[in-house]
Structures are given as C-alpha cells and as structure tokens.
Write a structure and sequence with these properties.
Length: 181
C-alpha cells in the first residue's frame, strides 16, 4: 500500500510531521525573508528592502505635494468665487480681489442667471492662473437678459497661501437706452 506524504521529497526520511511543519513555517515567513533560521517577522533582514523602497519613493515626492496643495487651493477658491457670483453675493465676491479690496460698484440692478466655465484655470510657471467664464445675467430695471465673457486672472500669494483675483469683478455693462435689439 502506497501512502501520500504531505512534505516535500527531501524530507521523506524525517517523517510526515516534520515535513508538514516545515511547509507551514515556509508559508508564514514574511515577504522578502530568506530561508535562514534567524529570519523572523521583526528581523532587519526582512525590513531593509521595504525601507529602502519607501525612502526612494518619498524623496522626490515633496515637490508634487506642494503643487497639489496649490491646485487644491485654486480649485476651492474658484468654486467659492463661482458660488458667490452665481448667487449674487457680490460683497463676498469682492473679498476675492485681495486684502486691499476693489472699488465699490453698485450691482443691485444685476441678477446672475448662469455661470459656465469655458476654460478651467491652469497654473502657470509664474504662479498665476487664467480662467474664462460665461456669465448670463438680467438687468432688473429692464428685464433684459445679457451675457458676458469674463477673463479672470488669479495670482497665488506664497505668504498667505491664497489665490487673489487680479482682474476684478465682472464688468456688467448696461447697454445704452438707444439700443433696441
């Protein structure tokens, strides 16, 4: 009668229990561990390849993290500015012009009905971004739908970590009374 062994062929002389135990031990070895008897879960031999890989991958990664933070800040600023303009919160939108602010403009006659990004802001090498948007608005006193293309120039301030609108608020232009389209 032939019996099947669980261990490998090289362990046939030790008996089935020894061969089986060796198989279990080999499956439990940490990844990257050699067959040396001193190689265990806490061994430096098993950890050094992982540490070396971590150092190599983390070294050049600091530059893109800073760029990602700038990109996220720009996205958040553009989103907040879009909401302020879209919902007619012009004093809040004027807060994006900068610490010095802009000139007071009376926008009580304007109701924004649409805000569509035509070209998303892309960060340039000089820490500036340009975004093109189409704004639909109604002149309340004339109940007339108007449209404008706003070219927004944004500049990043390293000290404050904020993006500031250099181009100012959109120029909502009321047509002449003689315009009879």
């Amino acid at each position: 009668m032939i019996t099947q062994r669980r261990g490998s062929a090289r362990d046939w002389h030790r008996g089935p229990e020894v061969a089986y135990d060796r198989e279990v031990d080999e499956r439990r070895r940490p990844l990257g561990c050699s067959r040396r008897p001193d190689c265990g879960a806490g061994s430096a031999v098993a950890l050094w390849p992982w540490l070396a890989l971590l150092i190599v991958l983390a070294g050049p990664g600091c530059g893109p993290v800073k760029d990602d933070a700038k990109r996220n800040a720009l996205d958040n600023t553009l989103r907040s500015y879009r909401q302020a303009i879209r919902w007619g919160q012009f004093p809040a939108a004027a807060g994006f012009i900068g610490p010095d602010g802009g000139a007071e403009i009376d926008l009580s006659n304007i109701r924004v009905t649409g805000y569509e990004v035509i070209q998303q802001g892309v960060i340039g090498p000089d820490d500036s971004a340009v975004q093109l948007v189409q704004i639909d608005y109604v002149l309340e006193d004339r109940q007339r739908l108007e449209q404008l293309i706003d070219r927004q120039l944004w500049r990043y301030d390293e000290q404050s970590g904020a993006w500031w609108l250099e181009s100012g608020l959109p120029r909502f232009v009321a047509p002449d009374a003689s315009d009879t389209r």
